[in-house]
Amino acid sequence: MCGIVGYVGNKQVVPVLLDGLRKLEYRGYDSAGIAVVDEHHNLKIRRAEGKLRNLEEAIRLQPIDGTYGIGHTRWATHGRPTEENAHPHRDCTGRVVVVHNGIIENYLQLKEQLRRSDHRFVTETDTEVIAHLIEEKLRRTDSLEKAVRESVKELRGIFALSIISSDEPDTIIAVRQGPPVVIGLGDGEHFVASDIPPILQHTRDVFFLGDGEIAVLTRDAVRVTDFDGNPVRPVHQRITWDPIMAEKGGFKHFMLKEIYEQPRAVRDTVQGRISLDTGRVYLDPMNITEGEFRRFDRVMIAACGTSWHAGLAGKYMIEQLARVPVEVDYSSEFRYRNPVLDERTLLIVISQSGETADTIAALREAKERDARVLAICNVQGSMITREADGTILTHAGPEIGVASTKAFTAQMVALYLFALYLGQLRGIISSDEARRHAQQLAELPVKIEHLLSDTDRVEELAKEFFRATDFLYLGRGINFPIALEGALKLKEISYIHAEGYPAGEMKHGPNALIDERLPVVVINTREQGNRASELRYEKTHSNIVEVKAREGIVISVLTEGDEMSSKVSDHVIEIPAASDLLSPILAIIPLQLLAYHIAVRRGCDVDQPRNLAKSVTVE
């Protein structure tokens, strides 16, 4: 979850590193640091506890510069978030420094071995062991690359590393075993980072290191090998994101900007994938044939956090449109329960970053058991897209806010497209139905824009309820995942305890929570003329009445023009009418905004909530 950035070239390195760390601060903000080698081959380090601004102040007071160096922003795993434990970490000689994302599982054993060779440690981190291990290897070789290669073979765990030495000018060594490492390719300059945004303003030509690979970066070249030294030919790609998409663009927070980018994210994810004339869905080319899709008799979905909620909504979509049974698992639980998988099972893995450690583990578990794997991901070239048999890319663009918004709606759209595709292949959906679905999907971005054009009501609710200590979110059917996601957004960024629950389970426990102080958010949308939707609506309406009978405060998310549930609700947020399977994409947007405005009023750090990081690349 930590962020790594490195640069070698002709520019002054400190501004490049600081700007890169600024774009990576969503990955960790317990501490930050940089290491650079100056023109006299002196290695200089500056570190600071807390946010990046503290590091910037330390550099202002004690300036340093050079033309190559590495930087790090930390999300603490081993060792408290202090300046002493901040990266970069150096060896005893002070000639080698390392930044690290991941966990070294055998660091205590290595530490004890190195102590017996007169190494002295000054931090609580596992990373410091890596620097000392490289130093130990350098006692027997004068090549930094060789020392790194020998060292990584002794490390157990997952790790992304960037390493420099004052003894090897204009050279950065990058290593990947688990967490992401992106290499940026420039003219007379090269970059290494944990994610794409730090590189975008300098170059759009990149490649991702694979597991078990080492890259040696100089000003003029990048050479890649595996851990045994065998040459590797990386797959270069060109990133099409506009660099300005990774900036705030006039919004107060990245999260707010990303909420307002949802019409574009949905439009871009749909574009070119469905015909309005025929309703036919066209997925990206993949190594899963139409025949295999027809033969699958079960779909499983594995994901974490917000992506898990998208997967839960996807279950309703796939089962309704394709009539295939679907199970949804937390990726962190998937491989620990000995899942039943075979060649007739399709596993869908969902990850915004494509680097979520638990989801990668679920993917690999499935492939070992002969299941086919389809990825839904926002980052082309990420580990999940490389290992899956096929990918549906979401075109949400870079998402910087830790609390996911536009990636979530794009994931639900991708799942909807897949459900339509599978339903068409299996002969469940007629041509007329397919055209109707295509038209509804085409109208969705405009409806989101309509929602976002007037958010005054949501801001008023935030003003009224930002002092609440608890919230309850309720929904039935496909609205239940939206209740879960609405609650997650609130707890993530405002630190208010919030719980999502199936509305039909109220009598089985949650009723005990309801009193005159508890805001209860109920998602109760309806699709006119859809009998199943009307029945679900009536049952959820009864739950609203039930909450009111116990003096609870009801905030209802309703379809425009709904008079019945409006009359029994204390507060109403209206969303445009939509089909049963698409209305959840509209319903989540006011809940994202409600969480955002409550968090702002509580003075919380919306983009960087405490104890959380954007991409969970370690277990």
From TrEMBL:
Gene3D superfamilies: Glucose-6-phosphate isomerase like protein, domain 1, Glutamine Phosphoribosylpyrophosphate, subunit 1, domain 1. It is found in: Cytoplasm. One of its GO terms (biological process) is carbohydrate metabolic process. Coiled coil: none annotated. Keywords: Aminotransferase, Cytoplasm, Glutamine amidotransferase, Repeat, Transferase. The keyword Repeat applies. Its EC number is 2.6.1.16. GO terms for cellular component: cytosol. GO terms for molecular function: carbohydrate derivative binding; glutamine-fructose-6-phosphate transaminase (isomerizing) activity. The active site is at residues 2, 614. InterPro entries: GATase_2_dom, GFAT, GFAT_N, GlmS/AgaS_SIS, GlmS/FrlB_SIS, Ntn_hydrolases_N, SIS_dom, SIS_dom_sf. It catalyses: D-fructose 6-phosphate + L-glutamine = D-glucosamine 6-phosphate + L-glutamate. Residues 289-428, 461-609 form the SIS domain. It comes from the Bacteria. Its main location: cytoplasm. Residues 2-220 form the Glutamine amidotransferase type-2 domain. PANTHER family: GLUCOSAMINE--FRUCTOSE-6-PHOSPHATE AMINOTRANSFERASE, ISOMERIZING, GLUTAMINE--FRUCTOSE-6-PHOSPHATE TRANSAMINASE (ISOMERIZING). Catalyzes the first step in hexosamine metabolism, converting fructose-6P into glucosamine-6P using glutamine as a nitrogen source. NCBIfam families: glmS (TIGR01135), PRK00331.1 (NF001484). Homodimer. This is Glutamine--fructose-6-phosphate aminotransferase [isomerizing]. The lineage of its organism: Bacteria, Pseudomonadati, Acidobacteriota, Blastocatellia, Blastocatellales.
